Amino acid sequence: MTVLDLFAGPGGWSHALSVLGVRDIGLEWDEWACKTRVRAGQLTLRTDVALYPVWPWVGRTRGLIASPPCQAWSMAGKRLGLVDQPLVHQAVTDLAAGRDTREQLLAACRDPRSLLAAEPMRYLHALNTVGEPEWVAMEEVPDVLPLWRQYAAVLRRWGFSVWTGILNAADYGVPQTRRRAILIASRVRTAQPPEPTHAQVAEPESLFGPGRARWVSMAEALGWGATDRPVPTVCAGGGPGGGPEPFPSGSRKTLSDARDRGTWTPRSGGGVPRSRRAGGWKSQHGIPDPACTAGAHRWSWSLRSNNQAKATVRPLSEPAGTLFFGHRANECTWIAEPAGHGLGEQEECPVVPEPIRITAHEAGLLQTFPGDYPWAGNKGQQFSQIGNAVPPLLAAHLLAPHLGVPLGPDDFTLAA
């Protein structure tokens, strides 16, 4: 018996299963996600989930996992999946009855990826003929919850206990307030969400149950210590789309020094780094665009989730917002402000560091992948994989009850 992972991506579910002592077989189409999986030692079939036959899995599938591509539904995209939603619901209804109307429905979809959310039902219908699988776990962006409820109604008719709802990954130790629609189903146990292990404010143990730790901050996950230091890593060659380095040539040694001191020491001689964005730091933060050379200052660093006007900005002392990647508008950047409340009258004006693009290594850690996870591809391909992946720590909490394996507090090491 095996665990079948549809739309397996770079291995979020698979890494969680490996921590729990189980291997799955992942079906994935993306070339670079498959290469990452192979590097990580995960069993992988590079195939189109919508075209792969179901019969090889009948009679041998214990668990089914599915995280259909979210681009059609995500707030980071055009969200044409919402327009196509009636067609996707119709596809689920038809597939649950053994009717394959995907070709006709696909022709009517505004986004061809929308219909991929119905694919798990094709597998579930075939497996149900032999009383499989024993359990199901599915994950998607929150707007897919109505579709998961439709799946739940079908699975209950087939004898499953089912729970659907929205979970916040931060409640399970993920340093990111990533909200996802979850479906959990089982033939052998009551389906229910795992008990949260963390809360926005720490909760002490009481007569009513165990306590919860405070949400894991970005600083903790990245092993950076104090919330206002160190200076984030400088990534040569810019972000996912390439481009110039985020600091002038010769700045790296200064940044390396600042990592240890928690300070920013500008270069002398007019080489002051300035923001390349329209308006610069002055308009965004009310900080003067310096024409002077300042002494060392401490900086408080935050993560800006994208380049858009209403981007989420979180200090290092908090979890990140949801990490979206895939195009330049969704680049995450570290931004800095002077620590404390204003400058003394005699203190020279600070030189504000320019925003620094997050690295794939840092983004992977914030998704709870190991620091040495073997990402394949260029930076853009790596960021795309990371943004679309299920956080392995959240996946482990969802899967552990089905497998009868306890998840220990030290099973995941975030900082690396």
Automatic annotation (TrEMBL):
- The region called Disordered is annotated at 236-287
EC number(s) given by UniProt: 2.1.1.37
List, in alphabetical order, the Gene Ontology terms for molecular function in this entry. methyltransferase activity
GO terms for biological process, alphabetical: methylation
Which InterPro entries would you find in this protein's record?
Answer: C5-Methyltransferase, C5_MeTfrase, SAM-dependent_MTases_sf
Class of this enzyme = transferase
Q: Does the keyword Transferase apply?
A: yes
**Pfam family for this entry, one:** DNA_methylase
| Top-level lineage group | Bacteria
Catalytic site positions: C70
User: Which UniProt keywords are listed?
Assistant: Methyltransferase, Restriction system, S-adenosyl-L-methionine, Transferase
Family, according to the entry, reads as follows: Belongs to the class I-like SAM-binding methyltransferase superfamily. C5-methyltransferase family.
Q: What is this protein called?
A: DNA (cytosine-5-)-methyltransferase
Give the source species.
Streptomyces ziwulingensis
